[in-house]
Design brief:
mainly alpha
């Protein structure tokens, strides 16, 4: 069953590949865009159609198994559809779901967009529904995958969009071990998270930025202070 569905997805992707869309997307991926280039509306419609057709025969375990194959052997759109399938089974999310998708970073997730979609559709829901806690995300801090590390601040950013009530102290405790991370994508993720928190908790975030401004990556400061007054944010410049 899994092999048959993998082939159906692959055939659809190959039949609807558009060179001009591939060319358009390539500029957004410094690490390279390995995709088919499919019209977004068409792809979304087909994904919803598959979910509707397969809902009686596919369990969350089946979708995780299919997701494993799509992540191992698929290209960009195929990985996106694996995440959408999983989202459709949100009511059945468990701690096992978290560990299984964590494995996807080890052999399948290799770009910022797939990482961020997983955070938006799956990881933020796992957190919001209390299926996992911050302590579970903390186990990813020392991962060799920069995308797995990036998912920590991005998942929190997406969680804040859903709940509007992230607590700055708890959030800071979780991301602080990543403040010296060399990955530009991890730094951008942290900076974006802190920028959003700063709007609601300026004193706590500014205190944290002052603590780290001379040590952390440049992009963390750049992104986190983006919405500050031009003159005001100069105080967070690194000392020369």
């Amino acid at each position: 069953m899994i092999e048959k569905k993998f082939k159906e997805i692959r055939n659809f992707c190959e039949e609807n590949s558009e060179p001009q869309i591939i060319k358009k997307y390539q500029k957004y991926f410094k690490e390279g865009y390995d995709g088919y280039g499919i019209d977004n509306k068409l792809f979304k419609s087909q994904t919803e159609s598959w979910i509707g057709q397969w809902k009686e025969e596919m369990s969350i375990e089946s979708y995780l198994d299919l997701g494993d194959e799509l992540m191992k052997n698929g290209r960009f759109e195929e990985k996106q559809v694996a995440i959408s399938f999983l989202k459709s089974n949100r009511k059945d999310f468990s701690k096992e779901t978290f560990w299984r998708v964590g494995n996807w970073f080890d052999y399948g997730i290799n770009d910022w967009a797939t990482t961020d979609v997983l955070c938006m559709l799956v990881l933020s829901s796992l957190l919001k529904d209390k299926v996992i806690e911050y302590e579970d995300l903390k186990t990813w801090i020392n991962s060799n995958s920069e995308w797995k590390r990036r998912s920590i601040p991005v998942a929190l950013t997406e969680l804040d969009k859903l709940t509007k009530n992230l607590k700055p102290i708890e959030t800071i405790e979780l991301i602080e071990p990543l403040m010296l991370d060399n990955s530009e994508y991890v730094q951008k993720g942290i900076g974006t998270l802190l920028r959003g928190l700063w709007k609601k908790h300026p004193s706590e975030i500014e205190e944290f930025l002052m603590k780290w401004k001379d040590q952390c990556g440049r992009l963390i400061i750049q992104y986190s202070t983006e919405k500050m007054d031009k003159e005001y944010r100069k105080k967070f410049r690194k000392k020369k």
